[in-house]
Amino acid sequence: MITTIVKRDGREVPFNLEKISNAINKALQAAGMGDDKLALTLAAKVSKQASQESLAKSTAHTVEEIQDIAEKVLIDADLSKVAKAYILYRAERTRAREMNTRLMKTYEEITHRDSKESNLKRDNANIDGNTAMGSMLKYGAEGAKIYNEMYILKPEHAKANHDGDIHIHDFDFYTLTTTCCQIDIQKLFQSGFSTGHGYLREPNDIASYSALACIAIQSNQNDQHGGQSIPNFDYCLADGVRKTFARRYRENLVRALIFSVGREDCIEEKVREVSRTILTNLQLMPEVANNNGYITEEYRLLSDTFDTTLLKKAQAFSLTQALEETDRATFQAMEALIHNLNTMHSRAGAQVPFSSINYGTDTSPEGRMVMKNIMLATEAGLGFGETPIFPIQIFKIKEGINYNPGDPNYDLFKLACRVSAKRLFPNFSFIDAPFNLQYYQEGNPATEIAYMGCRTRVIGNVNDPTREIAYSRGNLSFTSINLPRIGILSSRSVAEFYTRLDDMINLCIDQLLDRFEIQCRKKVRNFPFLMGTAVWLDAEKLGPDDEIREVLKHGTLTVGFIGLAECLKALIGEHHGQSVAAQQFGLEIVSHMRKRMDEAAAKYKLNFSLIATPAEGLSGRFIEIDRKRFGSIPGVTDHEYYTNSFHIPVYYSISAYDKINLEAPYHKFTNGGHITYIELDGDPSGNLDAFESVIRCMKEKGVGYGSINHPVDRDPVCGYNGIIGDACPKCNRSDDEWPQFERIRRITGYLVGTLDRFNNAKRAEVRDRVKHLNVTESSRGMETL
Amino acid sequence: MSELRLAGIIRESIVDGPGIRFVVFAQGCPHHCFECHNPDSWSFEGGFLATPKQIIEEMSKNPLLKGLTLSGGEPFCQSAAMAELAQAAHDKGFDVITYTGFTFEELLEKSLSSAEVLNLLKNTDVLIDGPFIKEFKSYDLNFRGSYNQRIIDVKMSLKKGVAVLMHI
């Protein structure tokens, strides 16, 4: 007879028959044959068998040994269904126990380790894991992930995610919200909006337009887990410039007239009244272009009161003066916007909002003034001349508007090149790429392609083909496939590769639909800003307690991929930079994935799309698991990271032209988002011709979205901005001295100001990046022929 | 066809003149500037041999290129072959920038007795002249190492007989 049992923590406690009987009864119930008596009988059998076995050993049984015996007893009793249930029950309990341990270990790491040593705390380079709020956010995130894995995911999805077949992005937010959104601030500002904490009136000055744009971005960030973008920055803020110009004109006219004729006859009231009359009768305000007839009408209405020569002079003076003042006010507003977006807090204070702004196509003088000044403010930098990390800026290129000499905004494209050469932003998007042009309607900015943050793209709409627009929509969630693993497992058989790939895509679609269902059941009141102020399309049709299903149908459900290069290496021994055949095969794979997304979209009437995944934590995670599992395979698992999406590996030497040429064709397949980068090893500010020629090459080759990476270093002591090696070339200060040089690099689309916050894999990637255009003397690698 | 003795090439450069440029570094240099960036290119032995045709073929592979830059080493120590290369580049629509450690005036004098030097000058659009002088070194100069070096419009200069400076 056994009397004691060894628990998992090593303590020896009295043996309790009832506990075994209870566990067995649970299994019986699960099999639909619950029976206390039978359970007790079976438990007795377990006890008896255990006693017999314990004669052979000197120590007491462990819990696991007793459970093994219980399984055997059930099988011997011909209760295979019950045995199965018992095994499952036991596995579940084991998983729960492991999870608890894992969670506590994770919490310990968050609590006690500096983020310099903790990869986990540098998971996202834009969160400072060393701060109180950054740590708090991590506790929440890690706890949520473990809960979601245990209680929310289907077991097959949990296994695939856990084993690294797939990666469910923003998994901590699985049951909470959606990824990102393009905010139509023009619509939002009309008649004001509420942030969920207070109500804001419609702004009336460029300064308040800029302030409210920041507040909109911040409010949005707190309702979502991803980033937010303003697709119509130029068009909307131009309205603010218009209002400022009209007011400054009126103020100057009043002053000029008072100066000339003295403070009599209620001059201010008269000018105001005339201005109101013209607005009411003709809907006109004074404008920068001064071709709408306002000035003539004002002259007519005021010429009875004032000397006409004087009036003409005063009007001309006020126009010039207002233009100058408005331009200055716009610069200050843009400067304030950039400062705000780099310093404001969101999500428990641990992050600045992930903000993007798109502009480039508004040809009105007011829109042009907005763009000129946001770029000049970016060029000037932050308080000490630092490079602004946010907002991500995207300059939209369009033939006939800003691409060629003679186009009305060509000067702004030139300026965009100059600023980007110094500050890494703006990036460039290409409306003329056929897959973007198909949505474009002249005169309707909502149909111009806009990108969010790192690369996300939302425009096509199977749910409502009459509204294929960039505004008021976003990505709902995305899940990435580990392509290299499928490549490795297929042992060079193409047929097997496609079978495995299709299985994985099916799994992702199923998982995305599960998550979509959770998201759909949320109510408007869960998202005070996103839904409550109708930032999303059609949200205005819903009440506070309505489900948001119909609104979310405008969003995208997206499958991504990582490591096309390593996948090709594993399958055919070469990646797509190395041979035409590999490129051909690469394109086949990605077009197949796109085809599967289109089929799913048609089947479910939901916007399934394919994204070239921006991988941060993921790039190192997949390869680490795969190296453990398959060993180090040359060109496949022997680096510290898998290559992003369809990119040519960063360590592979290739000309800028060839890289663009090879990556461009993938852009048309990846309708959920894409980006192509060219790396420079120095400051391209001195050669803007070269910079522009790379951007033009991207456009001609059919790239949708692209940018040029170059190191931006700054010595905070002498203020030198450029490339700094071990010592500042201007003042000779060394890198070991405090304060250290700032080194801005781009990581998964976002700029990060210090290498400290990069995770291990990304540090390695930045180190390995081969430059496509040669700049600095010291690193010039000359070739021979 | 003449052969070039080269220290190396760079297929895409953005610091050797405006636009993206193919750079050819001559092997062999008589100037020996203090703190030269490229002392390996001083010896007139070594390096490797290439024909202008080979260079043009390599350039034709890259539609992003705006022009050819001759650097070194001292290109004017192999004027004949360099001039041939420069002319071939011009025929393909590329512009040509030549870096030299000689001054324009020195080259002008040499050209009186050397048709090859004159030929290379005539096939150069922009000449960046003069040795690198460490005391005049600056990071604020575009495409130049030291203040004494000049950016010269060769066509105008040959016409007028004096160095005509330009901005690039």
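The longest helix of chain A spans residues 308-343.
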